[in-house]
Amino acid sequence: MDTILSVSGVSKTYGSGTTALHSVDLDIAKGEIFALLGPNGAGKTTLISIICGIVTPSTGTVTVMGHDAINEFRAARRLVGLVPQELSVDMFETVLATVKFSRRLFGRSGHDAYIEEVLRDLSLWDKRDARIMELSGGMKRRVLIAKALSHEPDILFLDEPTAGVDVSLRRDMWKLIHRLRDKGTTIILTTHYIEEAEEMADRVGVIDKGKLILVERKAELMKRLGKRQMLISLQEPMGTIPPELEEWHLELEDEGKKLLYIFDATSERTGIPSLLRKLAELGIGFKDLETSKSSLEDIFVDLVAQGKAEGVAA
Predict the structure, then answer these.
(1) Would you call 42 helix, strand, or coil by DSSP?
(2) What is the DSSP letter of 13?
(3) Does 298 fall in a domain?
(4) Measured between alpha carbons, how far is 218 from 203 in angstroms, rounded to an integer?
(5) Is the CB of residue 235 less than 8 Å from the CB of residue 285?
(6) Residues 52, 151 contacting (CB under 8 angstroms)
(7) Where is the ABC transporter domain (predicted)?
(8) Is 216 domain-assigned?
(9) Is residue 310 scored above 60 in pLDDT?
(10) How far apart (Å, rounded) are the C-alpha atoms in residues 254 and 106?
(11) Given the DSSP bridges, would you call strands 186-191 and 155-159 parallel, antiparallel or unpaired?
(12) Which end of the chain offers a freer environment for a tag, N or C, measured as fewer CB atoms within 10 Å?
């Protein structure tokens, strides 16, 4: 893996005694889309703020393309673009002037062709002379991305990029992020929208209560932890599940018209053949069988629940 960003032993404890991060270790590969999943207050924004030099860590180091983010702040920060959750722009300024000003802040000047390219990619070129206050919420968020890209960073951080936008705009943003990655930008996004990570990410990190619970490739995560479910459509509705079927831990659905069986698809024995034999022995007829995979959301909920259980046990 060609590592572009390395986080080692990073923690953050505030003066109040609150610990927001517990010794996080994380390496990001060049050109990947990495999604950091977690509920509100899990530590996502704190971690990004430390990497971007906004918050100082209590312990640990952050290295961006070989530059220490604390001791070589300017060199490291120049390589990073940040799109924050909150709007942080001068509402009376024009789109073009705002983006050009952000570029100059990083010591870069000129290169109007690049600024035009960014604005065109974000469908903002026709709005370049409009004041920020005149734009829709979705367009304002695009301006934040343009500002973050203005100095040509190698890594782009998106903190809850589609929070508060409608579904249609959210999908447009997903396409945009893929285009940015195709141009060589490394993308790191925080989100609590599970479908966002499922749609875009190469790897997924799950963070809860300041602890990085797991980091894994999305496909491998879903393969290793994902469960499947089988829905059995019965010929006759069932009021209660017979005790003879207890070992399969079935659930009744659709007013007793369907039986739900959840199983581990990676297991050597799924229990399906024996279940179907038992149904036949009991004279329980069925019309249809339907199987489906668990979603990333199911996996996320299970992981967070496991983390909480381990915390209680500890």
Answers:
(1) coil
(2) E
(3) no
(4) 5
(5) yes
(6) no
(7) 5-234
(8) yes
(9) no
(10) 59
(11) parallel
(12) C
Separation of alpha carbons 31 and 5, rounded Å: 11
Say whether 107 sits in a helix, a strand or coil: coil
Banded model confidence at residue 312, pLDDT cuts 50, 70, 90? very low
Which pLDDT tens digit goes with each residue over 203-227?
989 888 899 988 988 877 766 666 6
Q: How many domains does the chain have?
A: 2
Instruction: Walk across the sheet containing 33-37 and list its strands.
Output: 80-83, 155-159, 186-191, 33-37, 203-208, 211-217
Could you tell me if residue 228 is left (phi over 0), alpha (psi between -120 and 50 degrees) or otherwise beta? beta
pLDDT confidence of residue 297? 62
Residue 219 token pair = 């496909």
DSSP E strand stretches across the chain? 3-13, 19-29, 33-37, 59-64, 67-68, 80-83, 155-159, 186-191, 203-208, 211-217, 228-234, 251-253, 258-263, 286-293
**Domain match, 83 and 114 both:** yes
Mean pLDDT of the chain: 84
Ramachandran quadrant class, 149 (left: phi over 0; alpha: psi -120 to 50; beta: rest): alpha
